[in-house]
Amino acid sequence: MTDKRPPFPPFTEETARQKVRAAEEAWNTRDPERVALAYTEDSEWRNRDTFLRGRAQIVEFLRDKWRRELDYRLRKELWACTDDRIAVRFEYEWHDEQGQWFRSYGNENWEFAANGLMRRRYASINDLPITADERRVAL
């Protein structure tokens, strides 16, 4: 394992918060290649009803996601952590090509390799249609 991404497990509350903040910042760039570098080469994902394995599938998934989910903006929050695992709650807002806004809520369970890269990500997500005036400015 030549790739390393501190902080490394085992996580404390402080280092888990750092990991969550780094993930939030990376996802808000909407750069699939940058985001994928935080995951092991053979990382396993479940995102809603989609199952992925490896960085190449992650990159393609994220490209497609951000083609559909326009003006995407995400906020993540630490829920819990243990040695090599972090649980996160999140919400993000986006709109489709027709201008319909959504707020998507969910939870993620993350498992990390010793080098600090995420080897498993399991996400459950629900979408709520909202009006433009219901958007959260602070998001």
Describe the structure.
It is a single chain. The protein has helices at residues 13-27, 32-36, 55-68, and strands spanning 39-47, 50-53, 70-81, 85-95, 101-112, 118-130. It has 139 residues and is α+β, with helices and mostly antiparallel strands. The chain has a domain at 13-89 and 108-126: Nuclear Transport Factor 2, Chain: A (Roll). It has a 6-stranded mixed sheet with strand order 2-1-6-5-4-3. The longest helix is centred in the first third of the chain and has 15 residues, at 13-27. It is globular. The protein starts with 12 loop residues before the first helix and ends in a 9-residue tail after the last strand. The mean pLDDT is 96.
**Going across the major beta sheet, what is the strand order?**
2-1-6-5-4-3
CATH class of the domain at 13-89 and 108-126: Alpha Beta
Portion of residues within helices: 10-25%
Strand content: 35-45%
Main sheet attributes: strand count, strand direction, barrel closure: 6 strands, mixed
The H-and-E topology, N to C, reads as HHEEHEEEE
**Poorly predicted tracts of residues:** none
- Oligomer type: single chain
- DSSP summary, beta strand count: 6
| Straight-line distance between termini | 35 Å
The CATH architecture of the domain at 13-89 and 108-126: Roll
Helix-and-strand structural type: alpha+beta
Number of helical elements: 3
Determine the CATH topology of the domain at 13-89 and 108-126.
Answer: Nuclear Transport Factor 2, Chain: A
